[in-house]
Structure formats: C-alpha cells, structure tokens
C-alpha cells in the first residue's frame, strides 16, 4: 500500500517537474519572441560609426550613436525619473587558439535628467562630473551620442605583431531605475534599450 | 539527480513547510520594498522571480494531485470521494475569506495610494515652481537688457582690448563670467570672477543656433559646481558689414538664498512628479505582492488539504484494502497502527479481528488435520485388520467397507457403496444369507447385537461371527450402523481337526491292539479245524475266517492310516522346486491310464519354496488320485495342473492349482471336506484331503477347494515364500509352459 502511494507521489512529482519545465520554457519563449515584436516605434539604440585614430601616442575614439527613447522612458524622464546611459568600450587582442585578451575596458556613464525649474534637460557625465543642459531630449541624446577624441588606449599597450579589435556598445541601465519601475522595465521592450556591439580593427 | 532532490523536497512535509515559510518571508520582504527600497534593493526582482517559480511549482504539484484525484474519483477508488470532499471543503474555506480580504485590500490600496496625491498639493507645487520662474524671469529680462547694452562697448574691438572691456563690464554688471565668442563658437576673450577658471563655459549648439538667428537667449542654467546661473547670450553686431558678428555670453549668479529656495522647490517638485509617475507601478507592485500572498495562502491551503486528506485517508485506504484482503481469505493482513484517535481504534480493532480470524482458521485447520490423520489412521487400521468391517447409514445404505470385508464376503463392496443391502444382495446372491441375517437387526434398531451367519459360496460353506452396533451421531449423515464380522470357518475347522486327530490317535491305540489277536485267533481256528471238518462246514469256516482276516487286515491298514494322520513325522524343510515335483508326479501317472490327460501350465520363473519333498509329493499324489477318482465314470479324464507366483497385497506365495472336469463337490460335503472319513469316492479311507490339508498347514500354506463355474472341482494350494526370496516373475497371469501329459 505504501509502495503504491509512494509510486503515485513519484509520478505526480515527475509530472510536476515536467509541467514546471514546460511552463518555464513557454515563459522564456514568450519573453524572447512575442515581446520584442510588440515594440512598434523606431526607438532604439544603435552605433552608427566608431573608429580610432592615433594622436600623440594615444588611441582616440570617435563614435556616433543613434539614440532614440521610446515613449515610456521619455515620459519617465519628463516625470523626473533620471535615466542612466552607459557607453561600454572594449579593446581586445586577438588570439588564434584562445579567447581574446582584454587590453582595455572603459565605461562612460551619463545621467540624463529633467530640470523642472529651467525646463531643461541635463546631461551629467558621471565619470567627469561635467554637466550640460539642453532644451530638448533630442539635443541631450545627440550630445551623449557623439563621442569625439575620447582617449581610449595608450600606444604603449599595443604591440604591432598582434591584431587588436575595439568594440563599443551603448545601453540604458535599467538596474539604476527606481525599484518600482525596474521589474516592469525588465519585461518591456520599450525599456530594454541597448545597441549591438560595434567592432572595428584598431590601427 | 535534480529530479531526486526536487522529489525529496516536495514529498517531505518539512521541506514543503520550509518552502512555504521561505515564500512567506520573501513575500514579506517584497511587501516591505516600498518602505525600505535600499535594504532589499536589487533583490526585488529576484524575490519576485523566486516567488513566482515557487508558486508555479506548488501549483503544478497541486494540479497533478487534482488530476489524480479526479481520475481516482472517476475510477471510484476507495476513499476518493472523501478526499475530494475534504479538499473542496478546505479550498472553499480558504478561498472565500481570502478572496474577500483580497478584494477589500485592493480597493483600500488603490484609494489609499491615490489619497497620497492631493490635487491641491500638486497645484501648490506647480505654483511654487511658477513663482520661482517668474521671480527669476523678471530678473532675467533686466539682465538681458543689461547685457544687450554691454555689446555697444564690444563692437569691433580687438582681442586684447576686448579682455579689458570684458573685465570692466563684468565688474560693473556683477556677472560672474563674460565671454566673447565668434559665430563658430571660438572664444575671443573671456573674463571670469574666478581667476583659476581659465576655460570659460561655452554655450551649447542649440543656444548658438538661436542666437545666430538673431534671437537673444536668456535662460536659467544649472552650471556645474556653482549652482544656478542665468545665462544671457546676445549677438554683438559688427559696424563693418564685411566683418563677422560676434556673440557675447554672460553668466550671472543667482543669489545664494534664491538659489537655495529655487533648488528646494525644484527638488520637491521633481520628487512629487516622480512619485506621481510611480504611483501606478507602486499599485501594481502592491497588488502583485498581495496577489502572491493570496495565491500562497490558497495554494498552501490546497496543498495542506491534500496532505491532510492523504493522512486522514491513509488508514481508511488501508482498511478498505485490508477488508478486501480478508474477504479474499488472507487473514494475515495487518495494518500499520495509526495514532490514538478513532481511526486508530478502528485499525486496532481490525488487526484484532484478523488476528482472531487467523487464529480460528489455524485452529480449524489443526483440528481438520487431526481429524484427517485420525481418519487415515482408522482407515489404515481397518485396512490391515482381518475382521471385515462395513458401515451403513440409517437407511441401510453401504457407506464404507474395508479390504477384509471384501475378502471375507467375496464381493467387491467398493463398487456398491451407496446401495442398500437388499439391492446389493439382489445383484450378488452370495450375500443373500448375510443380508437376511443382518437386516432384521438394523430394522429393529438394536444398539448392539451378535449373530453367527452361515454363508455358502464358491469357497464352500463358511461361518461368520457378525457383531453389529449402532453408531451414535449428531445427524442423519453421521448416524448409522457398523458391522464387524470374522470368518471363523477355519477356527471351527481347526477345532474339528484337532478333535479328529485325537479320535484317530485313540482309535489307533484302542483298535490296533485287539486286531492282531483277532487275526491270529482266526488263523489258528482255520488251521486247526479246517482240515478236520466236513467239507460244507469247512467251506463255511474257510469263508468266515478269511473274511475275519481280511477285515482285520483292512482295519489294520485303516488304523495305520489313522496313526499316520495323527502322528505324522516332523516335516523336513528344504529348498524345493514345485515345478519339478509336479513334473515327476505327473510322469508317474503318464501311461497308467489311457483315458487320462494331464495338462501342465507351469510358471518357468517360479521361485523355490521351503518344503518337505516327500510330503509335497504325497499331496500331489493324493490330489491327482482324487481327481482321477472323480472322473472315473467318464470316458476321458482331464486334469489341469498349474503353478504360478502370486504377489498380492504385499504377500508373496506360490500357487498350485489342480482342476478336474468331474461332477464337482456337493455343497454339503464342501464344509466337512477336510475332515477324516468324508469322501465322495466309493473306495478309499476318506483321509486324502484331510492329510493334504494337514501337510499344507504344516508348510504354513493354505488349501482351498471349490467348484469351478463350468464343471469340475478346483483345489488351490498356496505355499508361502520364505523371506528374501527373489521374486523373479511378473505377478498375476501365468508366464507358463503348457505341457500335455
């Protein structure tokens, strides 16, 4: 009798585990496929161009990003929620039979906020503390999306016998959003703003 | 592996309770996130995910349980209805209050959160902001005019004089920084209040674009590290149309107090706007947490319902299965004890009951075995005793009969079990006398009786001593009669034989002595007077004395025969082949009588017996003589002699048969056949068969005389085999050599 009951319970468990796995799979599938489709605006982050030039023994990065916010983050920004953007830069040495070696890694962080009194949008470079104010979000994003002569890497760190690749990508940091917004943001394509990795060969 | 861990976690009561507690704690944490954002910080999303997964797992577990319950319910499995009822009861008991609390909570939550945001507060903040802007706006317009006036001094000045002019203007106007720029945003000259600040703050592209269009810019700019500034950017028109216009930017500091107040208003406004914006997410978060709590409560209640139902039903389930097992005859079923409640009492009672049942069954089995063994014992005893035992039921129907009864009565009673005695005797006339004697006693219903019965059959007249008794019993099936009978023919015959032996001995002794003087006297009379007597008298004397002598001679031989019968010498036993003796004796008779034909049917593998050769020879001579005598009036005499080895009921013997084709023996004679002076022959002493019987008995054998079914008499002699004799033949039929003599 006990054996029978035990067996039945095991069956139930196996079913439960299977069903849970199935449900999880379905959830992941929905999250991965259905939600991005629902994003209808042309909002999104992308890297238009990025390249480095050697100036006075320092590799300097010029990059153009196309940054457009969807309605939800735009509304949040207007409502006083600061947005955090980060530009991740990465230089790696190519290796034939192994993973590439990271030579330099830099992140440029910006805070974008609305100043109600002056009705201006402020961009604060969190690395330098530099502040700039703009009349519109577009101007502010344009400012953030344009990187000029950014010192990326010292020439000394680069050897000529290897190939080096640089990569850059820009994203909206959801983790820095107010706690109540974060869970929704994780599941919303309007908030999940990040560009693809842009790669170029270091010359 | 993972499945095993999950299984162990989910089957145990403690792990599940721990899971519920964990979920409860995480839900508590979730509920507190609004108050203590920093404490739980980034855990929030994880907490949500863990809760959701845990709840999904429990829900799936419950779903599977429910599915099983439904299928059990459809199958009408034992206890499924009660389980279903319990589960439904628990769910309803939980769901109703929890749902009520939930709906009220959601309502309160909605209105509670909404009440934080007062329209008047919002208006007040808006107005405060507006007020700040207005107060700063008036100042800004003045500053714009002031800056516009400054441009007159800066028209077409060189860079060096521009620095001097800017310094002067800055000091007189109270600006914190004045910068003269080209239209392409290149600094021509700058003057700053802070001497260390060598890099002037340049206007942005948007401002420049506005100014290039001929519209001066005035605005409130939060300049880094120095609080709010009023920025005025105006065009410095060149007097020379060919020369490029310039741009003047002036930064005026806002008074510290105003700066501070404006900042407070701005921060409060910002905060309030943010809160208003986050109102919906906050509600969603609270409702989500509340829903999770509700789900956890309901699911845990359902799970507990299943657990409780299972625990409650487990003994009932066992009881049902145990009852079925008992119904199927398995009394060794024992249920595991379950608690001290009423169910435990029922289980204990069930165990007691099965224990007693098993005990009763064992006792019944033991007594049945006892009865069986007694019956077997009784059968064995009845089968071995020489007394015939038959039992009858109350209606006189034959119930049982042992082997001895079959032997004594000469009828295979086993084939007639269930028949009444009259029916039986109608089929078997040999039993007619037996039935006649027994039936009145049975009808009479005598408790005990004894009767001597004479039977006539193929074996001749036999005397049975029959004792009957009524069998006590509880009902008609067990009640009945038992009849025990002995064949006392041999006993009575032996008594007679002994008597005759005594008679013979006495006769020999008493008669033999006077015979010789009688004979001698008669001879002397004859010798003395025969010659001296006249011929007529002499003839008479001669005839008379001759008769006397002859009769005495006859008497002497008779007495001699008696003496032989009475005082036969002791037998000398030795290994003896019966076939050889039969051959020799039959050879003696060969040719003696032309009418005689002796057929021999001898068993070639006949074992030897222990016997006295002379005596056995005498037996054969006597019997062949008898057979010849019996057929003396026929034209042709035929004697069949056969030997064979018989194994019957573990008793081995050599059988010798002598059969004639004479008229047979009268039934009356058959009884007294072995007694001396019983003969059907016209001549002879009548001691022949008596001697044969005596000799055979001396050999430990048995002789039977009977009439054949067709014609003639049959004598069957059985010689016992000594122990350890190799039984070389197949029992039963003759494996024989036939030989006509």
Task: Give a brief rundown of this model.
The complex is a heterodimer of chains A (203) and B (741). With 203 residues, chain A is of the alpha+beta class. Chain A folds into 2 domains: 1-38; 42-201, no CATH class.
Spell out the key features of this protein.
A: 203 residues; alpha+beta; 2 domains; six-stranded antiparallel beta sheet; three-stranded antiparallel beta sheet; globular; disordered N terminus; B: alpha+beta; Beta-Lactamase; 5 domains; five-stranded antiparallel beta sheet; 20 helices; 18% strand
Topology, please?
The complex is a heterodimer of chains A (203) and B (741).
Chain A: H1 2-38, E1 44-55, E2 58-68, H2 71-78, E3 83-93, E4 101-115, E5 120-125, E6 131-134, H3 137-144, E7 146-154, E8 164-172, H4 182-186, E9 198-201
Antiparallel strand pairs in A: 1-2, 2-7, 3-4, 3-8, 4-5, 5-6, 8-9
Chain B: H1 2-11, H2 13-32, H3 37-40, H4 43-75, H5 80-116, H6 119-150, H7 159-173, E1 177-182, E2 187-192, H8 205-212, E3 217-222, E4 228-236, E5 246-253, H9 256-277, H10 279-327, H11 342-384, E6 388-393, E7 398-401, H12 403-409, H13 421-427, H14 432-444, E8 448-457, E9 460-471, E10 480-487, H15 489-529, H16 535-566, E11 574-576, H17 578-589, E12 596-603, E13 609-611, H18 613-630, E14 637-648, E15 651-660, H19 667-671, H20 688-698, E16 702-707, E17 713-720, E18 736-740
Parallel strand pairs in B: 12-14
Antiparallel strand pairs in B: 1-2, 1-5, 3-4, 4-5, 6-7, 6-10, 8-9, 9-10, 11-13, 12-18, 14-15, 15-17, 16-17
Helix pairs in contact in B: 1-2, 2-4, 2-10, 4-5, 4-10, 5-10, 6-9, 10-11, 13-14, 15-16, 17-18, 18-20
């Amino acid at each position: 009798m006990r054996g029978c009951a035990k067996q039945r319970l095991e069956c139930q468990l196996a079913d439960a585990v299977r069903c849970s796995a199935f449900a999880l799979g379905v959830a992941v599938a929905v999250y991965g496929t259905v939600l991005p489709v629902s994003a209808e605006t042309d909002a999104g982050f992308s890297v238009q161009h990025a390249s480095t030039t050697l100036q006075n023994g320092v590799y300097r990065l010029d990059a153009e990003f196309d940054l457009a916010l969807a309605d939800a983050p735009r509304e949040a920004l207007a409502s006083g929620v600061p947005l955090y953007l980060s530009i991740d830069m990465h230089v790696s040495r190519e290796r034939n039979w192994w993973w590439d070696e990271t030579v330099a890694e830099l992140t440029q962080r910006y805070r974008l906020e609305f100043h109600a009194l002056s009705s201006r949008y402020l961009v604060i470079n969190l690395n330098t503390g530099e502040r700039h104010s703009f009349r519109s979000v577009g101007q502010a994003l344009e400012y953030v999306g344009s990187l000029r002569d950014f010192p990326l890497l010292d020439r000394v760190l680069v050897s000529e016998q290897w190939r080096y690749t640089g990569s850059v990508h820009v994203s909206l940091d959801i983790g820095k959003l107010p706690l109540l917004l974060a869970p929704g943001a994780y599941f919303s394509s309007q908030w999940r703003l990040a560009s693809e990795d842009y790669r170029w060969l270091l010359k | 592996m993972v499945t095993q861990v999950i299984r162990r976690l989910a089957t145990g009561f403690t792990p599940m309770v721990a899971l519920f507690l964990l979920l409860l704690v995480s839900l508590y944490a979730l509920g507190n996130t609004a108050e203590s954002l920093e404490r739980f910080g980034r855990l929030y999303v994880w907490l949500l995910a863990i809760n959701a997964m845990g709840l999904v797992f429990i829900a799936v577990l419950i779903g599977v349980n429910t599915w099983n319950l439904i299928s059990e319910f459809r199958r009408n499995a034992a206890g499924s209805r009660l389980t279903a009822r319990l589960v439904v009861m628990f769910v309803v008991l939980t769901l109703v209050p929890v749902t009520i609390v939930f709906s009220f909570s959601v309502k309160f939550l909605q209105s509670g959160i909404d009440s934080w945001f007062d329209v008047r507060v919002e208006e007040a903040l808006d107005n405060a902001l507006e007020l700040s802007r207005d107060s700063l706006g008036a100042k800004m317009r003045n500053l714009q005019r002031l800056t516009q006036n400054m441009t007159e001094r800066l028209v077409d000045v060189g860079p060096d004089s521009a620095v001097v002019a800017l310094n002067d203007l800055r000091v007189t106007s109270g600006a914190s920084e004045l910068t003269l720029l080209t239209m392409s945003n290149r600094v021509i000259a700058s003057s700053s209040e802070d001497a260390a600040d060598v890099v002037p703050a340049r206007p942005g592209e948007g401002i420049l674009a506005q100014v290039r269009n001929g519209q001066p810019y005035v605005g409130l700019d939060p300049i880094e590290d120095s609080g709010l500034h009023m920025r005025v950017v105006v065009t410095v028109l060149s007097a020379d149309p060919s020369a490029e216009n310039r741009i003047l930017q002036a930064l005026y500091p806002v008074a510290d107090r105003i700066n501070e107040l404006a900042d407070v208003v701005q921060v409060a406004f910002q905060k309030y706007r943010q809160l208003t914006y986050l109102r919906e997410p906050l509600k969603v978060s609270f409702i989500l947490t509340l829903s999770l709590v509700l789900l956890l409560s309901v699911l845990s209640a359902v799970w507990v319902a299943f657990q409780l139902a299972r625990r409650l039903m487990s003994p009932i389930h066992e009881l049902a299965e145990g009852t079925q097992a008992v119904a199927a005859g398995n009394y060794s079923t024992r249920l595991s004890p379950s608690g001290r409640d009423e169910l435990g009492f029922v289980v204990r009672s069930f165990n007691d009951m099965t224990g007693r049942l098993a005990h009763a069954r064992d006792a019944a089995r033991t007594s049945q075995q006892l009865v069986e063994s007694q019956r077997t014992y009784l059968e064995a005893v009845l089968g071995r005793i020489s007394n015939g035992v038959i039992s009858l039921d109350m209606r006189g129907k034959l119930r049982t009969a042992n082997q001895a009864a079959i032997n004594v009565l000469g009828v295979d009673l086993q084939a007639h079990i269930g028949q009444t005695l009259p029916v039986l005797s109608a089929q078997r006339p040999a039993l007619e006398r037996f039935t006649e004697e027994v039936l009145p006693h049975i009808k009479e219903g005598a408790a005990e009786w004894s009767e001597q019965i004479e039977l006539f059959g193929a074996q001749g007249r036999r005397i049975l001593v029959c004792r009957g008794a009524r069998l006590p019993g509880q009902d008609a099936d067990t009640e009945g009669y038992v009849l025990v009978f002995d064949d006392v023919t041999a006993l009575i015959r032996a008594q007679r034989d002994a008597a005759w032996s005594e008679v013979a001995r006495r006769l020999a002794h008493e008669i033999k002595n006077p015979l010789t003087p009688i004979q001698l006297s008669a001879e002397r009379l004859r010798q003395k007077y025969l010659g001296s007597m006249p011929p007529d008298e002499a003839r008479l004397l001669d005839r008379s004395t001759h008769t006397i002598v002859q009769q005495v001679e006859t008497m002497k031989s008779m007495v001699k025969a008696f003496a032989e019968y009475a005082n036969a010498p002791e037998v000398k036993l030795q290994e003896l082949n019966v076939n050889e003796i039969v051959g020799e004796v039959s050879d003696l008779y060969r040719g003696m009588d032309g009418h005689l034909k002796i057929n021999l049917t001898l068993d070639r593998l006949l074992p030897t017996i222990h016997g006295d050769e002379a005596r056995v020879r005498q037996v054969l001579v006597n019997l062949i003589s008898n057979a010849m005598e019996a057929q003396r009036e026929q034209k042709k005499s035929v004697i069949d002699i056969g030997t064979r080895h018989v194994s019957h009921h573990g008793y081995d013997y050599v059988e010798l048969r002598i059969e004639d084709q004479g008229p047979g023996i009268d039934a009356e004679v058959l009884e007294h056949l072995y007694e001396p002076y019983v003969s059907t022959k016209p001549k002879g002493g009548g001691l022949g068969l008596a001697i044969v019987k005596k000799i055979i008995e001396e050999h430990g054998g048995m002789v039977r005389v009977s009439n054949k079914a067709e014609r003639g008499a049959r004598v069957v002699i059985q010689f016992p085999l000594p122990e350890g004799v190799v039984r070389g033949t197949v029992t039963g039929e003759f494996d024989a050599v036939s030989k006509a003599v």
